[in-house]
Structure formats: C-alpha cells, structure tokens
Amino acid sequence: AQSVTQLGSHVSVSEGALVLLRCNYSSSVPPYLFWYVQYPNQGLQLLLKYTSAATLVKGINGFEAEFKKSETSFHLTKPSAHMSDAAEYFCAVRGSNDYKLSFGAGTTVTVRA
Amino acid sequence: DVKVTQSSRYLVKRTGEKVFLECVQDMDHENMFWYRQDPGLGLRLIYFSYDVKMKEKGDIPEGYSVSREKKERFSLILESASTNQTSMYLCASTLTGTNTGELFFGEGSRLTVL
After folding, report:
1. N or C: which end of chain A has fewer CB within 10 A?
2. Contacts of B1 (CB under 8 A, 6+ apart)
C-alpha cells in the first residue's frame, strides 16, 4: 500500500521568499507522485507529477519538485513566493497497478506582504 | 480541457435524509472516484469505479453507496445522512492506460448535515 506524509500543516512565507513544502512517501513499488494545489472553494489542480522520467520535475506557476529515492521524498519548492501562491497543497502517490491516489493531509501556505 | 462537473456546490440536509451527489465527466474516462475532504485529514477515498456498473470500496465506504449506470456519470448516495458526514466531497476521473493516471477533479460539493 502507498501513503504519503506531509510535514507541516501550515507554512507562512514572505512574498519573494523560498517556498518549501515537504512530502515523504511510502510505497512497495516504484511510485507515481503528484503535487496538487487547491485554491479556496475550488477543486484540486495538478501542479506537477513524477513518472520516473526525470528526478527533477518542473510544474506550473514556477513550482518544481525533486524525487529522491534514497530519502523517499518528493519536496515541492518555488524560489520566490507570490501572493497568488496562497492555497492548500497536497502531495499524492499511486502505485503502478491501479489508479487510486493516496493523499497527504495537506499544507496550507500563507504569503505575507 | 477535461471537465468534471459536480451538480451541487453547496447542500444543506437534515439528519436521516437521503442525499444524492452527482458527478459528470466529458472526456470518456473509464475511472471515476469519490473522495471526502476534511481539515487535517486530506482526501480520503470513499468509492471508485473502473467501468460502468462496476464499483469498489475505498478506505471509508461506511454510510455511502454509489451508482455508475453510464460511463460519464458517477453518483454518491448517502442513504441516511448523519452529522458526521458534513464535509467537502470531491469527484475525480482518469483515463485507463495512461502512464501516470493523473486525476481530474470537480470543484467539490460542500455538504452540511443538520
């Protein structure tokens, strides 16, 4: 079974500062990993995905994530936070044999002016 | 673009009422899912379906049932709503055979049970 753990339920950053959201996964098979973003009163939107093609994955809105197998991690970063990045972020994992995603508890990002 | 439409954005129901949450996708996806979202718990899978008339239990199926009579439509049913089912419900779909299985989500249905 696959699972993910997101470290930190809330992250507060200043505008222009680095955003770092942590995600560790547990999987018995090579995983597919995802980061989704949810803006208030909306559904989830895909930020980026890891599918074993490259360990550094670039997504939308300037976000990127690095897959580190030795650390079972898939942390999300953005070099310079913007006010529009305020949202909730979810890490998710699926195995190679089905289509179900298992989600982390989410991290809420607040951006200070 | 893939469109997943949930029929009701906000619902208020009373304890014991039967509740239907409808979800329709327009991209001919075989796989459809119902998740429940609660603060601090993330998204938890209630039921999913790999094909018409097929359904499988997810992690928290108790108190829920589903119906998939047509490929594009996946309904979540609360036979007798209870206050602990107050939550945000998210429908999602994906195509079989892709190498990633990215889920496409609807905008959610926020249910309040009084």
Report:
1. C
2. none
Decide if pLDDT at B99 tops 70: no
Angle, vertex CA B111, rays to CA B106 and CA B114, nearest 5: 180
Would you state the structure tokens that stand for residue B45, as one six-digit string? 């899978």
Mutate to test the interface with B, among A36, A38, A99 (most CBs of B within 10 A): A99
Q: Do A104 and B99 touch (CB under 8 A)?
A: no
Chain A: residues touching B (Cβ < 8 Å): 6, 9, 32, 34, 36, 41-46, 49, 51, 90, 92, 94, 99-106
Q: How many CB atoms lie within 10 A of CB B20?
A: 12
Q: Which residue of A has its CA nearest to B101?
A: A99
pLDDT recorded at residue A41: 83
Q: Closest Cα of chain A to B72: distance in Å? A: 17
Q: Residues in chain B, how many?
A: 114
Q: What is the mean pLDDT of each run of 10 residues along chain A (113 residues)?
A: 90 97 86 92 92 88 94 96 96 83 95 95
Considering only CA atoms, which of B88, B99, B72 is closest in space to residue B3? B72
Exposed (0-12), middle (13-18) or buried (19+): which is B86, by Cβ within 10 Å?
middle
CA-nearest residue to A89 within chain B is B42
